[in-house]
Structure formats: C-alpha cells, structure tokens
Amino acid sequence: MTTSGAAVVIVGGGVTGLSAGWWLARDGADVLVLEKGIVGWEASGRNGGGATHVYSPFGLEEQRLWPQMDQLLGYPTEHQSFRIGVALSEAQLALAKRWAEIGEARGFRWELLDRRQLKELVPIVGDSAIGGTYLHFGGHANPQRTVQAYAWALQDCGGRILQHTTVTGLVQRGGRVTAVETTRGTFGADVVVVAAGPQTGLFADMLGMTLPLAPARVEMIATEPIPLMRVGGVAGNGLYGRQTLRGNLVYGGGPHEWINVPDMATPEHRNTPLVRNLGRRLAELFPGAAHVRMIRAWSGLVENTPDGLPVVDRLANPDNVVIATMSSVGFGLSPASGRAISELVQHGRCSFADLGALALSRFADTPHDWRERVGWVATRAEVELAAGGDG
Amino acid sequence: MRGVDRRSLTGKGPRADRHVPLIVVGAGAAGIAAAVEAARSGVETLLIDEHPVDNDMMAMDVPLCFGQRMQPAVRNRALMLERIVETNPALATAHEAGVDVQLGTYVWGAFVAGPTVQELPAPMLGLADERRSWLVSYDRLVVAAGARDVLLGFAGWERAGTLGASGAAALLTRYRALSARRLVVIGSGTLGLHTAALALDHGIEVAGVVEVEDGVRGDHAAAKALAERGVPLLTGHTIRAARGRVGEIESIVLAAVDADGRPIGGRDREIACDAMCLAVGLVPSVELLHLVGARLRFDGTLGGWVPEIDASMRTSVPSVYAAGDGAGFHERMLGAPEIAREQGRVAGLAAAESLGALDRREAEQRRGPASPAMPPSTDVFSYWQTWLRSLIEAGGWNVNACQCEEVTRRELVETRPPRYLGWDSPQMQARDLGTLLRDGPLNQDQIKRLTRAGMGPCQSRRCREQVGLLLAQAAGISVEQIPLPTFRPPVRPLPLNVLWPTDEPSAMREDWVGWFGIPTQFSPHWEPGMVLDEPTAHARLIMSDE
Q: Which of A214, B64, B358, B426 is a good FRET partner for A179, with 20 to 30 A between their CA atoms?
C-alpha cells in the first residue's frame, strides 16, 4: 500500500522531530511526522525540563527563543527564566561556578550567592548549603506541555502527524531516500528527517552508516506540591530538575543503566529502588522539604553518542536525509535544534550555529565494539566480559 | 583502560534487606488463607498489611476513602493495632501457623527485572512503616490487596464527610473509629445495603439509601430489613449537592430523577447528615500486579482491570499469584468471604507446591474439589455511567472531577491547561477532547498530563475511575477501550525521609553524578574536548585507550 507522502517526512515525534516539523510548517513546508506511539511520549516528555545549555552550539539560540516560545507556539510551555545552583560542598560550588562562567563567556550575567542570600531565595535549603549561583540566564519548562504544544502548533501551521505509526524501512532509489515504509503504508518523501531517539541508530544502519548510540534508562521522582519559591529552577547535589508551577519538586540524577534497544519497539519503562536514593539526595539538597511526600516516579530511555554530543547532520549520500540525535540532552535545546534541522532541510546549512562538531562523520572510524571498550554495556554477560577483559 | 562505567548502575543494584520465599500482601480473608496454607506446608511466609494506617495518610484518603471521619483515637497507633488484631481473629491463626505477620506496613513498590532493568538481583518489594523503608526480596508473591472505592463527584464532595464504602467499613469494623452520627448511603446494590446495615449495627443512624435507578438493586429481603429498621430507601434520586458550613457536610440535597436519570425540577429534598458514603462499587487494587508486569484484562463484571489468572490463581508472571477482591470483585463476594478464602487457599497451596514444599498429590489433596464456577455477574460500568450522567445533569459541569488538582468535569473534557497558568489563546480554545481524538485513541495518561486530573497526592485514588468514565462518556466509547492508566511507585505517598535508604553503598555516593558523567558532554563548543568535571568524577575521556 502506498499512501500519499509529504515533501518532508519526519521519522519520530519526539521533541526534536516535532520542533523541526513545526519550524518547517511555519515556513510553509508540507510536513508529515510519523510517530510510533503518542507524540513526546518517551524521554521528550518525561525529562527534567532544563533549558540552560549555553555550552552548546545551539545555546545562544536556545536562550533567545525560550522566552518567546509560548507566544510563537500559541500554547503554554510553562517556561520560566533563570536558574539557581545550590552547593553543599566546595567542590559542588566549583562546579556551579564553572557552569556560570561558561554562560559568562557567552555574555550572560550571574551572581555568587552566600548562604544567607541563598536561604532567602530558596527557603528549603539547610545549613549544609554553603552558597550557590544565581544565573540570569537559562530556565526550565514543562516537557509534557511543551511536546504537545509543538505538536499542536505544527498542525495549526498545516503540518500532519500520524501517531501509532511505526517506520519499518527506508526506500532508496538513485542515491536518495524516496519513501519510508511504515506499519500503515508507504509514504513518499522529498526529504527525510530521522529523529528517532534510541532507534535512530537502526535507521543509520539501514543507510549503511555508523551512528554509535548507547541507550540507557534513567529515573526521576516527583513530590507533592509545596509553596512556590521565587525561582523554581533550583538544583544541585548531583540532581537536575525544578519546582513546577504547581509546586511539585521534580528531580532526577544519579546512576543510569545501559540497555539494548534491538528493534523499533520501545521496552516498557520501569523504576527501581533507585527512587529511594533520589529521595535521599533531594532531602539532602532541601532539608526543609525532607518531610514532603514522594507521589510519583518514572523512568525514561535516552541515547548517548560516544562523546556525548549530538549528531545533527544532513548526509552527503543519500543527500536528502537529515539525521538527528541530541545525545540525551534534547528537550531544552529543542527550539534551536528544530530550527537548525529545518534550515538543513530547506537550505542545506544552518545559519545560526556551526554544526561542524555535530557531524556524523566523526564516528566513521568508531570500532564496532566501542560500547564494550568504554564499559557502556547492557547485559550482565557483557558486564562480566568487560570487567574480566583487562589487559 | 577497560572496565564498566563507574557512573552506571552496574554493581550498585539494590540489595534487599531480607529475603523470604513467600510474601503475601494483604491480611484479608484471601491473604490470610494463602499465608496459612503456605506456612502449614513449611514455607517461610511473610504476611504484610498496611492497617493500621497512619493518621496523616488516612487524611489524604489513602489507601481508602476515609472522608476525614476518623475519630481522634486513630492517632493512637498502639490502640489501633490492638483493635485490628482483635477484630480479625484469623490473624491469630496465621500467627499460630508460623506466619511472620507484619501489620502497619506499607507496600509502596514492586520491582522486577526486565529489558530495561538488569541490575536487580531478585524481584523485591519496597516496604515502609511511618519511620523508615526497606526492601524484601521474594521467590513467590501472593497479591491479595483487596478492592477500593469508586468515587463519583458532586457539588461539595470535597467536604469532610464524603466516604467510600470500603473506607467506612474499615473505620467501622477494623478501627472502630468512625466519627459520624447520621449517614446517607449512596447506592442500593449489595454494597450499599451491606454498608447501611453495618452502620446501623454500629449505632449510626442511616438517614437514607439513595439509588438513581427506579428500584433497589440489591437483595430485596435485605432492603426490606433496612426499611423495617427505619431506613428510607430513596430510589429514583440523585445527588444535587452536599451542603454545610465551611469544609463540612451538614446536609445533602437530593433530586428526584426520571426514568433516564434526569432530575425532575422542583422535586429536591434536603436531608440532614454529617457523612455520606459512596457505595456504588469497588475496583480491584491491581497496582502491585501492574508493577510486576502481570497481564491485566478488562472485565466489567469484576470491577474493571483484573489480572489474567489460571486455575491456581497464578498470574502471567509465574512467580506471582492474585487472590480475593484484588483478583476481581463482584458484589456477591461481600456476604461470602469463603470465596476469597478459597482463592487464597488455592494460591497459597500453589505457591507452596511451586516452591517444592508440597508434591502435586499432596497439594491436590489439600486443595480439594474445585469450587463451582461463579455465576456470571452483571456489568457494573453501565450502572456507574448511569450515576455519573445523573450527577452531571444535577450538578453541572463545574464540579471537580479531580479534587487534589481541582480539575472540573468541563476542564477535563475541554482538555484545559490548569487554571494557575492563567493561559488562554485562540489556539488553545480550539483544542478539546474531540480534536485530541482525531489524532489518536483516547489515552487517560495523556489527558492527565495536559489537565493534571489524577496528578495529586491521593495518587488518583479518588478520581481515576470517574475520569475514565467521564472521558469515555464524552468520547462516546466504552471505558474498556481506554488503556489502563499506569501505576508507578511509590504507590503510597510516603515522605522522602521515610523512603530514603539509611545507608548506601559507598560506590553509590562516590560515583553519583547528575547526568552520565561523560566528560565531553558539556564541553563549551568553543573549547572542544574541555572536561567539565563533576565533584566526584574521575575524568576519563572515553575511547582514550585507543
């Protein structure tokens, strides 16, 4: 069965694909997003919501766009500006300052907070906090609301989304990808964007390319609401996260578990007793909230490249494919990464960021067994192999 | 350099504080029977029950809807423990059979390995009391977690005094601490009639049994007995509102309805009461079964989502059994505890046999002849929908569907963002349940994320079913077409300083990083390769061994 396609077919309705599709549809492109489940249902909609990535080539554009996103999209993202870093030790303070200085290098302002100033801003920190940083940049948003906002705004601009449609193959002819095969028919395409999260590597395989990706499971917790603090974007002590506008403390961090994602099916998400350790670190960070109840936890799957940096690249051959993985840091950068992908699709280059460091070609010589070599291994058998393989 | 990623969970998987061959969750008729059979077969058995529940938890309507009608005595845990033991003589039998009985213990999580979880040495439960939490691993698990109330909202249902039938029954019989003088019971099925009689037996006046249908649903002899004790049977009525001074129920306004459940104007009546009990039905408590990955199926005659079980009460997860109301509830089970007891016995014997404590012949002998199959029961969902339609007709669309997050019925079906965002736009106005349905099948978790209905501290205990019913009604589909909204740990809302582990392996602390610890992940792009070191991190550029 061949179904009518689109000028641009986007494989993956996560935050990166949705943002790209929205930017394209805004420019009048004929866009179709194919999503195997519900839009933004995986890591895109279940992350910490942080939007402070000034180190990235997309960082300045991220900072420029977020304050405008509610208006641009027409739907609420719950974006809030500014961040506070809390330090419980000199080493943690050094790290918080390092983050701040990276922003400073890009022209952003920040202040060092002493304990008293910190307690005024974040009344739930305790005497264990030695100080912190106040970043007059960065921020956070609600991932669940934002992914839906992208999807709806994309539709409002005339783009289409097909949910519950799994892409199973890429049809290549004459050095181009001419169509994508799905569980609901084949869709013709002039340009294809692959932004399929942990499965992105499987599509690279179909094109004969090497995209080394290691999927992992990470966990988050949420508490009942507590009174709103002046700045909700407060983190530290090895945790990322925020206080939501409802008042819940939503935090993640700590050990990840490397896994395998062998096919297009997303394995079910499960939590582990790690939620207790997360609770402990949150109570250490905020002793004033140690009595607060944890009401939810969840886990999500993210993928990382060997250097932890994204791949956002328009391929040379086939020359009508853009491949994108944000290497586990996709949500906050999505306003900018989507715009970059839109430009790659339409103009073949990005006008606002140098994507040289994000090219797929940097992994051309990555050995097949790279995960074993760096110890990012999934199964017990592999762990034993890596641990015992010294020498 | 080779080795496993120090930042990963590898080697830091949770260690259980204790291992027992068999854990039974729930000390009701089914759970006790299962534990006794297993212990008598020589299996070391731990039986856990959360009652007596901590007062703060009760105040949140967790795990049952207690409606703030607890006597102050529930703060006295020692007294409550005494009463729970006194009022359930079977606990003594379990104790005598050698079962390790732990009361006042919450089961807040169930953890099993799977494709995304490999660092788990054994399946385990997360347990807690009001001070600390711990982990216990098991070889076999029997979930006999009972059933909880289906609540349906009306104007004023946030007021203290709105109970559920199972919450009321627990306060009456187990805690003997229900603080209500004059009760109105909603629902005239076996559950409603049973609840009314129970209240009368405990000296509480019953000011009426209200039924939206035009006749009593339950046993007519039982209804007649209630009438003879002076209880008005108010059939053909629905709830207009609960009234009273701030935060309290002092009266309930009922509206007479026509054959379609629509209120007939001018026929309202007000009944003084200090509590009302929603007794329209119960749903099996399947949280733990969901967490261990047991397959659930929808059966409208058994209260909705129930585990798939075989003749030995075994679920699709071979090490896990389900028994009692939690394996599927229908009203005839109320007056017949032997049904749950028999299911528990079968589960306990099967668990013992599978652990090698009994051989097949012995197990079969003790199991006895299979009990006759249960006659088919009626679908409760159409009854709940009848109630909900009448409540909407009588109370309108601005009644809260979700109390914790204050999401009204209207906001739910219009998929509005929460009011505190103060957001409006023409685009948002143009979106509602209808537009969402054009994009794909209805998913309650998706609507939860958009509206926040079900996201509060009661963990959607008070709204899960009515949100599903309301969405199904608005979408013109049946509830079973909506996938089960997920349950996630902790399935009891416990404080951070109870859930936290009191000690951690040193590797957990030393290697903890916020995000993966890939040294180049956050390098400023203008200084490629610069390492941003987390305090505990030992920088190791990956691939550096090549």
A: A214
